[in-house]
Amino acid sequence: ISALAAMDSLISVDYEVFGKVQGVFFRKHTQAEGRQLGLVGWVRNTERGTVQGQVQGPAAAVRQLQQWLRDTGSPKSRIDRAEFRNEKKVATVQYEDFLIRK
């Protein structure tokens, strides 16, 4: 972890993305984006047609993924909205990787 990231507090946030987000490789792109930002957590499809998950890591990087989930997504997705809840500071991250859950 860079010195800058070490100064940044670690946070954990739950997310859910609404819109056309299933069948458009949204989970795969979320995983790739999260890994590229050095984040850990998970992503899955829900039975109600949304994508949800949890992300953990340096606050600045988590903010970048939140913006990506709100505004970008996978190329064929159409995001109506993204909701974030249960944000909290964590002493250490609880995952070793960014995983796609079934």
TrEMBL record:
Molecular function terms from GO: acylphosphatase activity
Residues of the Acylphosphatase-like domain: 12-102
Active site: 27, 45
This protein's name: Acylphosphatase
Reaction catalysis annotation: an acyl phosphate + H2O = a carboxylate + phosphate + H(+)
Pfam families, per the entry: Acylphosphatase (PF00708)
Organism: Crocodylus porosus
Superkingdom of the source species: Eukaryota
